[in-house]
Specification:
Length: about 70
């Protein structure tokens, strides 16, 4: 079972940040798919909630120096 979650992401100031954040998210256990958009500061992850929580996903984003907040 997977869920799809949308989040806002702060601190991305150049296009390479997108690759950095996507790479971090895609490397997390339980994350099946991850995209972030520089222009809108929005991201989306498909994840298995039995493996990883939204809080753990946000922590990974913040450990990399960005800010993340799920929309719901
Ligand atoms: Mo660009 Mo982002 O020089 O972490 S890669 S600001």
């Amino acid at each position: 079972r997977t869920l799809v979650g949308q989040f806002t992401i702060g601190g991305m100031t150049c296009a390479a940040c997108v690759n950095s954040v996507e790479g971090i998210l895609r490397g997390l256990p339980g994350v099946k798919r991850a995209t972030v958009a520089l222009a809108t500061s929005l991201g989306e992850v498909e994840y298995d909630p039995s493996v990883i929580s939204k809080e753990e996903i946000v922590n990974a984003i913040e450990d990399a120096g960005f800010e993340g907040s799920f929309l719901q």
